[in-house]
Amino acid sequence: MSTLGNVIKTADSKSEKHVPVVELPETIEKGKAFLVTVSVGKEIPHPNNSEHFIQWIKLYYQADGGKIVYELGTADFTAHGASAQGPGAGPAYSEPHAVFKLKLNKPGLLIAESCCNIHGLWESSQKLDL
Known about the structure:
This protein is mostly beta strands. The chain has one helix at residues 4-7, and strands at residues 20-23, 34-40, 54-63, 70-76, 97-102, 108-116, 120-128.
């Protein structure tokens, strides 16, 4: 039986352009808002055209010792140069880069997923200390 855990790919973002990169501030305080940046193609640029693009990024959180994974947000990227004049002739492109504003009360794990229209699902995670 196939599950998402069997098909989501992981790799080092320094060698693979599809991996979402999670960036955190140096210090995070319990219960205080902070910004998390998630992007695809930070180290190696990912194509962003009508034929090959990142569709979305999702961010999840699991508190240390917790059993539930919380979806924190989704960013959809819907403009890839498409046009009635043909692929790549359009005036608008959405880059796979998102900023999420969070408040958390416990340390845990931030998990980012991205979806490439050709190469499928990719995941990375970042430990979060408060």
